[in-house]
Please model this.
Amino acid sequence: DPEMAPLSGLTVDDRTFDGFQIIPYAPNRFDGAKLLLARTGVAYLSTDKGDTVTLLNVTGFTERATSVVYGGRLDGVDAPDVIYVGTNGLKPDGTAGEALYATFSSGVAPAETSYPGSSITNVVLDPDDARNAYVVDVSGSVWRGDAVGTASETWTNITGKISGSATAPFAELKSVEIFNPGSGTNDEMLLVGGQG
Model:
């Protein structure tokens, strides 16, 4: 019966559909019911596993989100309100503008950091200090940010320090993670993955 809605939920108008947008999300490191979701120019927080969301104001954010982090540690204390949003570098008007946005406390909108690299593919935080971040970009570079969000913020390209990186940067690096084998500080290992 043509009057009945199709089982898929799609209609004739969906024929012009040109693809899905990947929406990065992250559960809060300390409370699994809380979620951070982001897409082009917009970020949302949820306190009920995504059943409802609240718009998060991100200062100057217009690019497509590619990576998010929610929750970290500051000064040896759990900091569930830490938020990072990494972007792909294209603003809706087509101009370049790769950026990394961050906040470290509730009620403070994430603001643009001084991240100097290319479009971001992945972000991970130092498990002992959320003001130290690692970023992999589309150029195959790995960046370390220290004191992010402070007047002392610095960024260092550490790609050449990766074990086995005779021909850095790598064009196919995609992910970054930190392995923390113990409870001590500075005992972490940075793991970077990709193709090839």
